[in-house]
Design a protein that fits this description.
Blueprint (H helix, E strand, L loop, with lengths): L9 H22 L1 H19 L4 H31 L5 H32 L3
Helix pairs in contact: 1-2, 2-3, 3-4
């Protein structure tokens, strides 16, 4: 089915876009170890949030951190696949692109850990 065909309804296009997105998330979850780690940590953090319990503001922050981390990891995976599609050779620019994307994920992960610890320490004062 060609989604650009004018006979295809807007709702069908809208629905198909979600199926493509979900397919990308599932494939990434099945094939990317780091994404699996991020999903696992996210699940743990959500469970901890229910056990403590988090305030509304803490939930907002944690959910933004989780969503941002998973979205950034998906973008990193997409960039890696595109670079691999373009060239099989070891090329300095291809390596630089992959390293920069991985670096962005790393920076966000470190920031997420720091903010997560700050939130957790609010529930366990020293």
């Amino acid at each position: 089915m060609d989604l650009k065909d004018p006979k295809v309804s807007e709702w069908k296009r809208f629905y198909k876009s979600f199926t493509y997105a979900w397919s990308g998330i599932i494939r990434t979850c099945q094939t990317e170890r780091n994404f699996q780690i991020h999903v696992s940590i996210s699940i743990v953090m959500i469970i901890v949030g229910f056990l403590l319990p988090f305030t509304v503001f803490e939930w907002i922050v944690v959910l933004f951190l989780i969503g941002g981390m998973l979205a950034l990891e998906l973008m990193n995976t997409a960039l890696e696949h595109v670079v691999d599609l373009v060239t099989d050779d070891v090329m300095p620019l291809a390596k630089a692109a992959k390293d920069a994307a991985a670096g962005a994920v790393f920076v966000y992960a470190i920031l997420s850990v720091i903010i997560g610890l700050i939130i957790l320490f609010q529930h366990f004062p020293l």
